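Justification of resources, computational component.

The compute hours requested in this renewal are based largely on the per-chain cost of generating structure records like the one below. Each record pairs the submitted sequence with a full structure-token output. That output is archived, and it is also reused by downstream analysis tasks.
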Amino acid sequence: MSNPTFCLFALLAAMAVPASAADGDRPKAPPVIPPVAGESAPAAATTDNVDPLRFGAKKPDEAYGAFQRGLYKTALNLALPRAQEGDKAAQTLVAEILSRGLGIKRDETAAAKWYEMAAEQGVPEAQFQYALMLLDGRFVKKDKKAAFALMEASAEAGNALAQFNYAQLLMQRDPGPRGAELALPYYQKAAEADLPDAQYAMSQILANGVGGKKPDDVEARKWLVRAAKQNFDTAQLDLGTWLISGRGGERDQKSGFAWLKRAAEGGNVAAQNRVAKLYMQGIGTEPDSIFAAAWYILARRAGLFDPIMDDFMNGLTTEEIKTALGRANRLR
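The structure output for this chain reads:
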């Protein structure tokens, strides 16, 4: 199934500014359920707690509890009869297990049928997942109109991922100011629900003054901080850059370097190149030509070329290049 979030290209394109370079789940256990034959509980929990409302249930049940403890075959066996009787929570749970291949072979075509049935009964998670399938068109016939309606319904019901994706759909449908204005409330709701993609989107909206908002770097930086703290590497890249330049608040080169280095260590190629320059220039850190070269070597391996850094590399000795290569290999 396709990724729950679309890329931000529509939003960023509407702003007419270049974007920065970039790019579990579930339930609380009630009474112990014996596993099905051949299934053993994991040594440690493998899933996160999930609100039972995610599956359209008012409270946890046996299937839900088995799912929480990683007993996926047991959960499927318990949920399937109820799903066949029309239980919307069980239908969503069955779809979840099938779509992710939890404890069994993945079967997204069968999962789509269960998501569809649960979506028809108004389960927001099922509406969201089935909308993604309709947009993707690999396991069901592609239907953008139906997907749009289901995504809207899920977003209105409070599903944060649906809110973000519905905002994206609105921007794709109308990439001009009107689309941005319609999308803004959904981006904001998803951002306030702590979805980092939406938090980054809000930073761009406020930084560039779209969707009826006036440019506000101070507020934009606050959203960057929230997204960066959730390991959203593009936000870390932008936040580091803003801190070094003093955009949206006080200048803090040391913190800016730290955020850029964190993004670089996470694999963000643009951040790797910027960290290389900071080491070269001694901004936010002590100058270090070997680390500068090492980080640029990583960026070069990923396909990024920077004339300034190329000139810098040409000025290093053979021994320095050799040392930098060894350090770059350890940085990977």
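Residues 231 and 282 are 25 Å apart (CA to CA). The first helix runs from residue 9 to 15.
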